[in-house]
Write a structure and sequence with these properties.
This protein has a single domain (about 5-235), classed as 3-Layer(aba) Sandwich (Rossmann fold). The protein contains 9 helices and 7 strands; from the N terminus they run βαβαβαβαβααβαααβ. The chain has about 240 residues and is of the alpha/beta class. The structure holds acetoacetyl-coenzyme A (CAA).
Length: about 240
């Protein structure tokens, strides 16, 4: 079997970097798709040195650019087997103060980006009879969160998207799942006011923030060749913050 090729949107971010590292260490060729982030690039290259990891600039809100990125990956590396949608932003503010631009930005990146990349990647996966799509949602898409009507709507929307697409491509060897991280050691969580974050951590049964590697491990599990009977599922990795069955 040839080496599996994986693309990770938001690949230079906190969770994205851990996902790139984990997939590459598991023997995948990995392409990190992200906005040009010169301040982050050197560190990313150091962290991934010696691994088969590549960086491709991409704005996931640009539908045409997503198509070009998928075509460029397939021309340079081969068929795209694994797509991880990890590009995500927050614009936390209560609804009463939320500007349309703050709503639009979060919906366009977090949910629109998933559509844009899946739309271009899924055709080839279905034609080849193999694909693994993993969408990074959030515990806050399951519970809602104060100040996050935009983010919670986008992240909950990813679950509906995941289940619907899973049904459409199940017979084609393509699985579509989501992972719902809880609060992790990332810049996004570090940006929450200290007092608010401390209160949240108090509510986590495990009693700490998650490590990005712990999310990456769940992603790699769902992206594995052997995970073909898991589709339309959501895997919570939240330290027990939200339990359901
Ligand atoms: N539940 C209920 N009430 C709350 C509350 C909460 N969680 N948080 C704040 N309030 C109350 C406050 O006590 C305050 O009440 P009073 O007016 O009576 O004093 C009122 O709501 C206003 O609170 P703030 O002063 O905090 O409001 P603000 O406008 O200054 O800030 C906010 C609002 C920006 C949303 C701020 O509360 C915040 O940053 N919250 C954190 C949101 C959060 O958890 N984001 C997650 C980011 S990480 C992530 O998203 C990753 C992931 O997937 C898990």
């Amino acid at each position: 079997m040839s080496k599996r090729i994986a693309a990770v949107s938001g690949g230079l971010g906190g969770l994205g970097t851990a996902i790139c590292l984990h997939l590459a260490r598991a023997g995948r060729t990995v392409i990190a798709l992200d906005l040009p982030r010169p301040e982050r690039l050197d560190a990313f290259r150091r962290e991934t040195a010696g691994l088969d990891v590549h960086v491709m600039p991409l704005d996931v809100t640009d539908f045409a650019a997503c198509g070009e990125a998928v075509r460029a990956i397939e021309a340079a590396h081969g068929a795209l087997d694994i797509l991880v949608n990890a590009a995500g932003i927050t614009r936390d503010v209560t609804l009463r103060k939320m500007e349309p631009a703050q709503w639009d930005a979060v919906l366009e990146v977090n949910l629109g980006g998933v559509f844009n990349l899946c739309r271009h990647a899924v055709e080839g996966m279905a034609a080849r009879g193999f694909g693994r799509i993993v969408n990074i949602s959030s515990v806050n898409g399951q519970t809602g969160q104060f100040g996050q009507t935009n983010y919670a709507a986008a992240k909950a929307g990813m679950h509906g998207f995941t289940m619907a697409l899973a049904r459409e491509v199940a017979r084609k060897g393509v699985t579509v799942n989501s992972v719902s991280p809880g609060y992790c050691e990332t810049a996004m969580v570090a940006a929450i006011p200290d007092a608010v974050r401390a209160k949240i951590v108090e509510q986590v049964p495990v009693g700490r923030l998650g490590r990005p590697e712990e999310i990456a491990r769940a992603v790699a599990f769902l992206a594995d060749d052997d995970a073909g009977f898991i589709t339309g599922a959501n895997l919570p990795v939240n330290g027990g913050l939200f339990m359901s069955f």
